């Protein structure tokens, strides 16, 4: 099979095209826009049959996506950052409609300050919504995940929307070799959309998304969504196997890299995890038994998988590319909670925050983190959570402020 | 209007298509209009609802609608209609459904959504020439939360967020004009107490494609503070005093469908409602009453000059 160079955004669009989508409600936002431009072009050229509608906001876009899925067509849509937050009311709302579709989120830091480059605080704001979440680290994975996402979303025991997440810039605009699956094989894998009894037809009047009175009925429907999502833990594993048989690539719930004999672990999501992979290779060469765990499936939360991967390790560093203000790293909190009370749980689960707004996490920093882990394992003392920021960065920042201050002062003097 | 099948009152359907026993308040002018609209439009429809009083019509597991229903959110019902319409069009084009399975997409919201939070989604739907009917039941305030003022509240009305002696300081937004300025397929005002006028407009709206709006003034006993039995009288007075002009916009023109021959003073309409009580008691607020009358007179003067 031939591979070709393409961006993460192009890979996402290819995923949608190969999934034989019917409908794309859209709204432009950086760094997602290339996806909808690509799809618009394909609709125009007749490469995709169906319709694309550009809404006037992401709030409307997700409403239209849910409503179309509830009428019985296969829907794909995409957004980023502020767009996801603008749509947030509907992100939570459409879950209860049990109308499956796929939303490609291209992660980007949240305002303010307004920025374009990535971190995961945007997608994690949708963490509790009831959307399933798949997180990608390569362009190939973006394409493959879209296909898997439709199977998950439309599975009769799940029937929930799915977010596939790719990092802005680092994946969205970076060209990597990607193998495009044969379209008939992809079609066969995804299958035809059977909307079941969720549809609007003249002969079968249906009231959807109606109000309830009282907590008992409300709880019934909320629990139902939660339990349906948990089915995805099993279903995903079957799908990953089926995908591997069909296309030769395995995308497990967790990517475990050099973890078997590891004494220490990095845990990271998204494409920055590939930086940690590189660090693992170098650290191993220097004699440090370290590995990397990267969750692909974040919702439903693969608690048992984490326990299996982490138990028996001396110390673990969870490097969160997100920040829950006033608490810390989201993944760190979830993993600590999963491991609590487990026999052989690592004595040290350390928290590091880095990569916000696209800030790099350097190899040196990863080596330093490994060093901190070794020390913590020896002393048994978990270090305080670290916000990654170097002295050099701080100096550069102060320098910038000083220059702006001097400029302003000089400008004032000239004016007076 | 000659082609209408609704020549006389006895021509109106009385199928009671919309079920009874809903949670709506006694004397609800919005529900009165909705009953009539539903009978004319029929149930080959999907009603896409935004947060408001009518959201409480369909409460799990019951509904008065024999057709379909989708509740969305307060700000985006027209976008819900877009999604449903697009999906049905795709299914028809791909021959996955037959034309007899098709449905009309109807947005149903109160004034809070139609005049305020939903304007962005509405504007987008008009831009895209979406084939849908928008029904706004306008009870001139956020009724479902206890009648706080909205941008549809008339000048000087007392609401639970404008309790001062002058009432609401703003003026009712011209939603009809807002739509008509963008040249949609059809815009009309109706009221449940003028069923013949209402039925003819719904009949017309049903035959046209594109964005269509029906604004139904919805006398509201709980929000406007009067006895439910007075709803009909207040509805009639809204038209007879000229406060609620019955009109339609079609083919680029605005036509008044029922011009009161001799307009009654607005006081007759206002004095029946507790929300305007402060204009009469403890003493008459001549300035405000004059101002309200003047606005109505100016409106009709402009209509005559047109």
Structure report:
The complex is a heterodimer of chains A (416) and B (306). Chain A is 44% helix and 17% strand. Chain A has 416 residues and is α/β, with parallel strands linked by helices. Chain A folds into 2 domains: 245 residues, 3-Layer(aba) Sandwich (Rossmann fold); 138 residues, 3-Layer(aba) Sandwich (Rossmann fold), CATH 3.40.50. A 6-stranded mixed beta sheet of chain A has the order 10-12-11-14-15-16, sandwiched between helices. The model of chain A has no long low-confidence stretch (mean pLDDT 97). Chain B has one domain: 3-Layer(aba) Sandwich (Rossmann fold), CATH 3.40.50.970. In chain B, strands 2-1-3-4-6-5-7-8 form an 8-stranded mixed beta sheet, with helices on both faces. In chain B, helix 6 links the parallel strand 5 and strand 6. The longest helix of chain B is centred in the C-terminal third of the chain and has 20 residues. Chain B starts with 28 loop residues before the first helix and ends with a helix. The model of chain B has no long low-confidence stretch (mean pLDDT 97). Classes of the chains: A alpha/beta (416), B alpha/beta (306). At the A-B interface, helix 3, helix 5 and strand 9 of A face strand 2, helix 2 and helix 4 of B.
Radius of gyration of chain B: 19 Å
The H-level CATH homologous superfamily of the largest domain in chain A, spelled out, is: Thiamin diphosphate (ThDP)-binding fold, Pyr/PP domains
- How do the SSEs of chain B run, as a string of H and E? HEEHEHHEHEHEHHEEHH
Strand order of the largest sheet of chain A: 10-12-11-14-15-16
């Amino acid at each position: 099979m031939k591979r070709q160079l393409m961006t993460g955004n192009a890979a996402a669009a290819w995923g949608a095209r190969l999934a034989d989508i019917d409908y794309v409600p859209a709204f432009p936002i950086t760094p997602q826009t290339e996806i909808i431009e690509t799809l618009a072009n394909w609709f125009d050229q007749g490469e995709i049959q169906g319709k694309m509608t550009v809404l006037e906001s992401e709030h409307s876009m997700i409403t239209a996506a849910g409503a179309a899925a509830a009428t019985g067509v296969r829907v794909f849509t995409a957004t980023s950052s502020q767009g996801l937050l603008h749509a947030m009311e509907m992100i939570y709302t459409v879950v209860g409609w049990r109308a499956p579709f796929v939303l490609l989120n291209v992660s980007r830091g949240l305002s303010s300050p307004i920025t374009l480059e990535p971190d995961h605080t945007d997608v994690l704001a949708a963490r509790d919504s009831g959307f399933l979440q798949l997180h990608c680290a390569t362009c190939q994975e973006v394409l493959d995940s879209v296909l898997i996402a439709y199977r998950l979303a439309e599975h009769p025991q799940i029937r929930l929307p799915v977010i596939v997440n790719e990092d802005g810039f680092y994946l969205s605009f970076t060209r990597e070799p990607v193998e495009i699956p044969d379209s008939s094989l992809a079609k066969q894998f995804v299958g035809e959309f059977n909307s079941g009894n969720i549809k609007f037809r003249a002969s079968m009047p249906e009231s959807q998304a109606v109000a309830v009175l009282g907590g008992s009925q409300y709880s019934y429907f909320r629990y139902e969504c939660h339990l349906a999502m948990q089915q995805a833990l099993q279903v995903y594993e079957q799908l990953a196997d089926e995908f591997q048989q069909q296309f030769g690539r395995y995308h497990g719930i967790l990517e475990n890299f050099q973890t078997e004999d590891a004494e220490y672990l990095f845990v990271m999501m998204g494409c920055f995890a590939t930086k940690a992979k590189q660090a693992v290779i170098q650290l191993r060469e220097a004699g440090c038994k370290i590995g990397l765990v990267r969750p692909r499936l974040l919702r439903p939360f693969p608690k048992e998988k984490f326990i299996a991967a982490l138990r028996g390790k001396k110390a673990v560093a969870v490097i969160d590319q997100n920040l829950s203000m006033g608490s810390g790293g989201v993944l760190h909190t979830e993993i600590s909670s999963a491991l609590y009370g487990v026999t052989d749980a690592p004595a040290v689960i350390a928290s590091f925050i880095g990569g916000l707004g696209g800030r790099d996490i350097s190899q040196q920093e990863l080596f330093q983190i490994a060093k901190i882990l070794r020390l913590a394992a020896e002393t048994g003392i978990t270090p305080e959570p670290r916000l990654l920021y170097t002295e050099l960065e701080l100096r550069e920042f102060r320098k910038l402020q000083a220059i702006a201050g001097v400029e302003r002062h000089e400008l004032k003097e000239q004016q007076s | 209007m000659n082609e209408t099948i609704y020549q006389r009152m006895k021509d109106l359907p009385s199928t009671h298509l919309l079920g009874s026993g809903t949670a709506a308040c006694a004397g609800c002018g919005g529900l009165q209009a909705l009953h009539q609209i539903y009978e004319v439009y029929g149930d080959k429809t999907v009603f896409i609802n935004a947060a408001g009083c009518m959201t409480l019509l369909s409460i799990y597991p019951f509904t008065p609608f024999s057709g379909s229903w989708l509740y969305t959110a307060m700000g985006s019902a027209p976008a819900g209609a877009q999604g449903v319409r697009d999906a049905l069009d795709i299914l028809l084009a791909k021959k996955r459904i037959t034309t007899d399975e098709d449905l009309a997409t109807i947005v149903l919201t109160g004034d809070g959504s139609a005049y305020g939070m939903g304007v962005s989604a509405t504007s987008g739907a008009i831009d895209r020439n979406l084939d849908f009917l928008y029904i706004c039941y306008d009870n001139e305030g956020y009724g479902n939360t206890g009648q706080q003022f909205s941008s549809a509240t008339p000048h000087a009305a007392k609401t639970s967020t404008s309790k001062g002696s002058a009432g609401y300081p703003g003026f009712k937004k011209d939603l009809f004009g807002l739509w008509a300025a963008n040249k949609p397929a059809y815009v009309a005002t109706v009221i449940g107490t003028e069923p013949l006028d209402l039925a003819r407009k719904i009949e017309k709206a049903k035959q046209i494609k594109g964005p269509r709006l029906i604004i139904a003034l919805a006398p509201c006993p709980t929000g406007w503070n009067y006895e439910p039995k007075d709803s009909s009288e207040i509805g009639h007075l809204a038209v007879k005093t000229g406060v609620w002009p019955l009109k339609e916009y079609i083919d680029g023109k605005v036509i008044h469908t029922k011009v009161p021959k001799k307009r009654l003073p607005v006081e007759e309409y206002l004095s029946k409602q507790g929300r305007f009580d402060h204009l009469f008691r403890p003493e008459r607020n001549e300035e405000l009453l004059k101002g309200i009358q003047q606005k109505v007179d100016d409106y009709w003067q402009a209509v005559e000059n047109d």
